[in-house]
Design goal:
The chain is of the alpha/beta class and about 280 residues long. The protein has a domain of about 190 residues: Rossmann fold (3-Layer(aba) Sandwich), CATH 3.40.50.300. It is about 40% helix and about 25% strand. The chain contains 10 helices and 10 strands. The protein has a 6-stranded mixed β-sheet with strand order 6-7-8-3-9-10, sandwiched between helices. A hairpin with a 2-residue loop joins strand 4 and strand 5. The longest helix is centred in the last third of the chain and has 18 residues. It is globular and about 65 Å long. It binds adenosine-5'-triphosphate. Adenosine-5'-triphosphate binds next to strand 2 and helix 1.
């Protein structure tokens, strides 16, 4: 199988079909089906440890599906070689929560870095593209500043500009609103929506923030209890009478979502062994 350059006509960017994901013998999520299309913002929500990061790892091919099929830009990840996977990843932008910037490079050079690594564009073109992306995150006039001269919120936006500089078709965000004040949260949410529309890409975000994600998402997925509990538009989920979904949306402390991390066979074995040592 070859890695196709063109997106399939269906405009499907990321598709999970009956996917199980986990680590070794441990399955975190079962039977996940999901279709993310060009132009969509999709929010992945769920309690702590429910498997959101595991889903992102599946999408980037960091972990392989235990069952089912994961397709990125129409390519089945189980059938891609390491080099094909690398070229698929070049079409994705990933923004980690700690999107670490290079402290010895200024803002401009941080954003230019992927262009210098992966393209042979002339300097004039690099200048144009980097300033364009910095403009998109409102930091064009900060291009010359050192990383120590910008605030934490600005650093997050520089990391975002860097994640989009290769004009990815899929952008994955790991908790883009974490640690931001309410105004910056609103600005970041709008930025994600605008970039998705402008680049005509797809954006998948892991988030705990119901208000911000519901304001921009085309689809919200809630994972928990080892499966996809719900997927639908923000309006669908808001009107759902499922107790788990309502507890999640309203952030209620009491309800079906457990506070305790569930015991696993590995924990029982560890406890057994620890008790025997005493
Ligand atoms: N590398 C790993 N090896 C083994 N188990 C792992 C690994 N990474 C995560 N897990 C387990 O997988 C489950 C899901 O973890 P994951 O990080 O996907 O959750 P999450 O929904 O992103 O959580 P949070 O919101 O707290 O970041 C947890 O039970 C976790 O202990």
């Amino acid at each position: 199988m070859t890695v196709s350059d063109a997106t399939p006509p269906s405009d499907s960017i990321l598709r999970f079909t009956g996917v199980s994901l986990g680590y070794g013998d441990f399955t975190v999520l079962r039977d996940i089906s999901l279709d993310v299309r060009r132009g969509q913002v999709v929010a992945m929500m769920g309690g702590s440890g429910s498997g959101k990061t595991t889903l992102l790892r599946g999408a980037t091919g960091q972990i392989r599906a235990q069952a089912g099929v994961i397709e990125v830009f129409g390519n089945d990840l189980a059938r891609t070689s390491e080099s094909q996977l690398r070229s698929l990843r070049q079409r994705m932008g990933v923004l980690f929560q700690q999107g670490a910037l290079f402290t010895d490079l200024n803002v401009f050079e941080n954003v230019a870095f992927p262009l210098r690594e992966h393209t042979r564009l002339p300097e004039a073109e690099i200048l144009q593209r980097v300033l364009d992306k910095l403009d998109a995150v409102g930091l064009r006039a900060a291009a010359h500043l050192g990383i120590s001269e910008i605030s934490g919120g600005m650093a997050r936006r520089v990391a975002l500009a860097r994640a989009i500089v290769l004009e990815p078709e899929l952008i994955l965000y790991d908790e883009p609103f974490a640690g931001l004040d309410p105004i910056s949260m609103g600005i970041t949410a709008q930025l994600i929506r605008d970039l998705t529309d402008r680049l005509h890409c797809a954006s998948v975000l892991i988030t705990h923030d119901v208000q911000e994600s519901f304001s921009i998402a085309d689809m919200v997925c809630i994972v928990g209890q080892g499966k996809m509990l719900a997927a639908g538009t923000p309006a669908d989920l808001s009107s759902s009478d499922n107790a788990y979904i309502q507890q999640f949306i309203q952030g209620k402390p009491d309800g079906p979502i457990a506070f305790h991390y569930p015991a696993t066979p590995a924990f029982d074995a560890w406890l057994d062994q620890s008790a025997r040592r005493k």
